[in-house]
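Predict the 3D structure for this chain.
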Amino acid sequence: MTPSSLIPIRARAVPSRAVVTLSSLAARVVGATGLCVLAACAARTPSGAPSTAVAPTAEELRRDLYAFADDSMRGRESGTRDAQRAAFFLGERLRTLGFTPAGDSGFYQRVPLTRTTVASQSTATVTTPGGASQSLAFGADLTPITSLGAGVPGLKRSADGELLFAQYGITNKKLDRDDFAGLDAKGKVLVMVMGAPDNADSTQRAMYEGVNGFAPRIQRALGMRPAAVVLVFQGRTADLYGMAAGQFLRQVTPRDTARSASEDERPLPPVLLVSERAAKAFVPAGWPARAGAQFAAGTRFAVRTVVTREQVTDYNVVATLRGTDAALASTYVAVGAHLDHIGIQTPVGGDSVANGADDDGSGSVTALAVARAAAQGPRMKRSWLFVFHTGEEKGLLGSAFFTAHPTVPLDSVVAQLNADMVGRNGADSLYVVGPSAAPKNQSVVLGGILDSVNAAMTRPFTFDRSFDSATHPEHIYERSDHFHYAKVGIPIVFFTTGLHADYHKVSDSPEKIGYEKMARVATLLWQTGLAVGNRGTRPR
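Done. Predicted structure below.
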């Protein structure tokens, strides 16, 4: 699951339709290696599944996830050969199951991307009035945001100006504060701390200390015409820096073949993120005890970011299994998951591989188990469509590309079932998103079918619908690949077991997954797909 989907920025200096993509990403490219892909195993029925010998099992899920989230996959970061290797794993498995290729290159749909990398020639320094200069390391100390998203004016890559402190960068009447009051930021480097004051309640703290706290701060700051904008991460937001840093040091975006703009052609100031390690250089002495604390006059920050751009190709994996009804077989029930994760991270205890066992290794191997059950079990009247998306962590890139360049007619897809992070958090709880959040009630009927299927299971799940709102502050509805299917009118249900302490960390590893629970989730998806696929009418 991407940590933040498309966060709108609305500032005087930025178009109203502009977006900031704040996905957590990181990795380096290595050569591909061959994989020995095992054939699907014979299955036994897990607890709570229908009495059929082909239902998904904990054993096959464990076997596949230990391979898919192995260190050799290097975190499956989009834009690298690691993600390609993950795609080949899935494509080969679908081939052995007898699926029909449905990409533009066999089982693979080419997704053209541009990778922008911050180069080693980049420099950044903080200089005090006495002339002492502190050099900062890109990555460990600070990270430049090289793009605010498609359609947004470009960000300059160089700046030099005096530091001006805006505390938390918050304007909130309920908290009785306006951190920008009285500040003249024009031509200065405006510094804000990603945090919340002590009098903030839990809701306010979640808003200001989470990924959704980026956009309002950047919005307000850009409108003040500073020389640069700096966001400092420390304390409770220190981990958030790590999530964002890799994304912008090695950013991947949809393919852009246009000439790179010159510095003079970029109208917006640089935006940079600063880690806890370098926070002391950007937070005035005595703050927050001294609320009005400022830097010593003449304290300056200078940055020069050098980037390289490379055109790369990622792959969605697309396959179909034809239905039995002559009329209905031309329509599809789609099952999806994302194959990518966040790659190589700063080492923690000697481990630098973010395996992504839950995010979204769990969804990918769950979809594989559904595919195996679909191929070996009873065929339905409609056809199955399986799409494993790349680039979800980069901003839902693979699903955006597939829905813009579908390899089957989009109006032939009657429903899309998306699994993203389905392996953690208790035995019986499952978040269901879509029936209420999707526009125009387009997923309500599909939600009712899901409820009926779940109720008929030997051990039904307890559905948590708290995220099933388009206006939920965490924006979960917008944070996985189903979102692009819903945008084109396809009924969707998004299945997730929710976030946890290992989310987007190297500690998200296979031994922490609840495989019996995953088998029940896979069975629920399979049986829901069958219920939709055998209906004579669409779930609308």
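Residues 120-305 form a domain with the Glucose Oxidase; domain 1 fold (CATH 3.50.30.30).
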